[in-house]
Amino acid sequence: MLETLKQYKVKLMNRNIVIMFILSGLPVIGCSYTPGNTNKQASKSQSSAKELKSVEIKDYQGEKLGSINDFRENSIKGPQHVDMNTYKLKITGLVEKPIEYTYNEVLKHQHYSKVITIHCVEGWSVTLLWEGILAKDLLNEAGVKPGANTAIFHAYDGYTTSLPLDFIMDNDIIIAYKMNDITLPPERGFPFELVAEDKLGYKWIKWLTEIELSDNPDYKGYWESRGYNNDADAK
Ligand SMILES: Nc1nc2c(c(=O)[nH]1)N[C@H]1C(S)=C(S)[C@@H](COP(=O)(O)O)O[C@H]1N2
Ligand SMILES: [Mo]
Fold first, then answer.
1. Does residue 79 have a cis peptide bond before it, meaning omega lies within 30 degrees of 0?
2. Which CATH number fits domain 59-226: 3.90.420.10, 3.40.50.1820, 3.90.1150.10, 2.30.330.10?
């Protein structure tokens, strides 16, 4: 019984020593965490991850953005994986000088970004920050021939759509390589998607391969030839 009590006392003493040790140690540890201590700042910036550009942004200048994952995958042949070794963006048809751009040659043009909403006829819409170059910058480089009034867009999956040439020349229509600050993933149209602002989703051609200038304003693309309105006004 006594033995037991003694042991208990010793245990208590040991515990007190441990507690005292911890207490005496605390202010020392605390010192290295006082605000303004440069060591803390340095160690913190070293340990916190450096932000890489592949992180999707969720708001822009106070505006909440939708997500790259808010799209319904409904492409006519599913996601396309474009072979970038052979990829070219071609400007053809009624132009002075047909041009074939590589991906990097397209990106050498002035960059533009804007928050724009895509509306699909299926009833969903997504607002994102789009970044790209202007369609008219490429067309001006190729030189629009008199008589051209329609731009026909072709894609890797065989999809086509068209827009009045005036619509492209009178507006800042973006050919996007990024959405929400990340490079378009294959399912979202890599390398390029046309941001057909104020037009319904079926004008937003993905996996863009060619812009052909034509004098046929009645050209009908994939969905247009299946009954969808050729104006495709989203407003
Ligand atoms: N090449 C190609 N582009 C396309 C399509 C397609 O099937 N093929 N679908 C269109 C439609 S109907 C919409 S709504 C938008 C967005 O489609 P997503 O949700 O499949 O990205 O892409 C458009 N661009
Ligand atoms: Mo759509």
1. no
2. 3.90.420.10
